[in-house]
Amino acid sequence: MSNKPKVLMIITLDTKAVEAKYIREVLESQGVDVVHLDPSIRQSTDSSVEITPEAIAAAAGKTIQEVRDLKHEGKCQAVMIEGSVACALKYHAEHGLSGIIGVGGSMGTALGTVVMGSFPYGLPKVMVSTMASGFTKPFIGAKDINMFNPVCDIAGLNSITRDVFRNAALATAAMAKNYSPVRVEPKPLIAMTTLSTIDRCTVNVRKQLEAKGFEVMVFHTLGTGGMAMDQIVGERDVAAVVDTSLVEVNDFLNNGLCSAGPDRAKWSIRKGVPVIFAPGNADFMVAGPIDQAKAQFPGKRYHMHNHALTAVRTEAPELQALAKHMGGLIKDAEKTRGPVSFFVPLKGFSNHDSPDGYLHDPSLCPVFFSALQEALPEGVVPRAFDCHINDAEFADAIVEQVLAYTKDKQPFAS
To answer: Residue 194: in which H helix or E strand, if any?
Structure first.
């Protein structure tokens, strides 16, 4: 191949040969080289593709006939996903990719987005998918994947899908031609979590740290934000994590809408990155519309955030469970963890939990703090603050702790 930018094209030729030919032509017309990864299980129509079904199956330890003999679409796909990821990463390591484009229905989308998710943030990723009209979270997860809705089924070319495929290919080519894998990060990086209900705290901390020469990445904790932060902490050199919004952990424990799963908050602790935790937004769980919220969490206190979301007040049992869970995460990483602080504002955990809010209960913050004292391992001592999480005093304390943790990073004023 030439020195042109290389785009990985993930399309099954056994069902989408026409679409693959068209997208390849558009990509090549824009001055990029195409590397076609064909994860077909049925007979492929073109053995000249760059990464064949046979090579994909072999990368997963099977022949393509052995895959076909499984006679189960889920099991077959699992093998082809494993092989596709291995082949794509191997090609990238040897030749360097500048972008990825995939086309598919639910099966093709599942395979294509898993491959995309194995690549670093920043590398362009485009998925043309029938799932893009509203069923995207299981496929995108916490990665920077762009999805195009083909409107029609992916069944040949028509006046609508031709335009969608062309637009997706043009976008991929343009991004690939301008992609640079070299990332200059002269500033020490701070990762931070938030929701709008603790925005005053977040903005205060961010502005102070930016003024002192840090780059601050803020993640919106609605289910994937914290997952994205955890992945970036795993990939990049992060100076410290300020995890001030634990709603995703709370929702995992209580089946709320914003659950980020059982691994939320583990990366930073296990990697040894300094972490400052605070129970921001732990005063509520996130549920759907008010009627659903009342059915799911009967007998609670509710605040209708909007027609689609309801904040449900946590009580002592939920706060104690959260404290125990966080203590367990920290204990489990005892051999690898770096310094950990846990700051608890005793006058409220969010805007809702304030004198001006709808779920204020000043008796419950001390309950969480007391449970945390019992749950944390020896050497991690929680600090209580006689203020609200959005008070300047609390933000100042976080900044002071970040600076204490990052002395060796030598931040510089911008």
So the answer is: strand 189-194
Task: List the Cα angle 349/353/358 in 5-degree steps.
Answer: 155
Candidates 2.40.30.110, 3.90.650.10, 3.40.50.150, 3.40.50.12030; correct CATH number of 189-409?
Answer: 3.40.50.12030
For residue 185, what pLDDT is reported?
62
What is the DSSP secondary-structure string of 211-254? HTT-EEEEEETTTTHHHHHHHHHHHS-EEEEEEEE-HHHHHHHH
CA 347 to chain centroid, in Å, comes to 31
Q: What is the pTM of this model?
A: 0.80
Are the C-beta atoms of 84 and 100 separated by less than 8 Å?
Answer: no
Three-class DSSP category at 342: strand
Label the pairing between strands 310-313 and 302-304.
antiparallel
CA R_g for the chain: 24
336 alpha-carbon distance from chain centroid: 23
10: nearest Cα among 75, 142, 93, 105: 105
Between residues 304 and 43, the one the model is more confident about: 304
Which phi-psi region, left, alpha or beta, contains residue 133 (left: φ > 0; alpha: ψ -120 to 50)? alpha
Q: Where are the domains of the chain?
A: 6-177, 189-409
Q: Tell me whether domains 6-177 and 189-409 share a fold.
A: yes
Instruction: Please say whether the beta carbons of 68 and 124 come within 8 A.
Output: no
Query: What does CATH list as the number for 6-177?
Result: 3.40.50.12020
Q: Are 30 and 170 in contact (CB under 8 A)?
A: yes
Could you list the beta-strand ranges (E) of 268-363.
275-280, 284-287, 302-304, 310-313, 340-345
- Count Cβ atoms below 10 Å from residue 358 Cβ, excluding itself: 16
333-377 pLDDT, tens digit each? 888 888 999 999 999 999 999 999 999 999 999 999 999 999 999
